[in-house]
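During the no-cost extension, the postdoctoral fellow (Dr. R.K.) reprocessed legacy sequence entries with the updated structure-token encoder. One reprocessed record is reproduced below for audit purposes.
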Amino acid sequence: MRTDKQRDREVSDLNIDKQIERKRTEAATDRQQPVEKLLDWYDRNRRDLPWRRTKDPYSIWISEVMLQQTRVDQVIPYYERFLQAFPDVTSLATADLDSVLRIWEGLGYYSRARNLHRAAGIIADKYQGRFPKNFHDILALPGIGPYTAAAVASIAFNLPHSVVDGNVTRVVCRLYAIEGDIRTRKVQKEVEKQAAGLLDTRRPGDFNQAMMELGATICTPAAPVCTRCPLSDHCRALKQGEALRYPFKSPAAKRPHFRIAVAVIRDDRDRILIARRQEKAMLGGLWEFPGGKQEPGETLRQTVVRELREELGLEVGLDMNMSADVVKDVGVELGSDVVMDAGMELGADVSAGGSGGVVSDVIVESEPFETIHHAYSHFTIELNAFWAVLQAGEPKTRNGEPLRWVTAGQLAEFAFPKANRKITQTIVKQMNRTA
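Re-encoded structure tokens follow.
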């Protein structure tokens, strides 16, 4: 027979259970209210974007990779051109890398294109051309991290995985007034936890897109439109009157700057020499003009001389614009036939950085014909291009990467980094004027 104490304890335990259940219900309600508001807002306000008109996992995958660190308005024409050229996994897998990079040219972060190509090959071989439906199988593909895997899994297959990108991070940090530097893993894990807790498991793809849409159009970095935000009633940062304080991001390190000098080498048929970058290097697989970074104490022309010797095994001789006084100072009689003679021996001081008694393989002008300034995500460059003429010898890369002799008109057929592409445009204009 139960004692009064036992009955009182049972009643107390029952009350505790009810309190716990009530708190769970309240927490679920508190979570559900902003989620429903967000999805309702998204249904009425989402932008009409091409990748939102399909549930095809291949198309969604391409869009999500392109959208990494790239603006929507910049992505749209590339997305449409890419799908026109490679409409499915099989067409991408069987394409040559050069053609993939040429379509991608200008979008930047070229490792994304190389990884798309590699991943398509794996999907074609391992999954018979059908995009994998399992989150972990998607995550295992080259170039796919947790964000992209969650985006494709949720949008294409309705799997309950939350995404966290820059827009989502900003929304979550403001919604919960999360303190700390978002560059730290501790804060990132807190954002991931809160985003996962909010996720609507019935409409995970729409929820993820709604969070990203909110961050892109309403909860923007510098000018959030809080009066139009569907989550304003739940936003702790707004209640504090400090929406702009969140999220905190420590200043990035100053980007280094490099001066680069390249040679645009022509042969006796007016063809131009281009070299392909190693696939594992930055901008891997793209084509460029031979050259490299300026070393301390070098002039830009000396950089070209050194790079041509190191990269292609070519020795540089008199430049085509060297004055008569300079040539006489080094003991060489000036004359067009002498300067352009492939067998001319050079004095020790004639070529910048050259050695005495060598045969001139290449003649390089003394000043660049084009200077391009360009910014990458982690550094900036000044790219200087020098005209040069091949006199003798056979250029060969030390790393075995291919070289091509192409006409000015053929330059458009090869994928170049953006700064190099500007040089190709100048080349075409100048050679057309002199033709």
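The chain has 16 helices and nine strands. The longest strand covers residues 380-390. The remaining legacy entries will be reprocessed before the final report is submitted.
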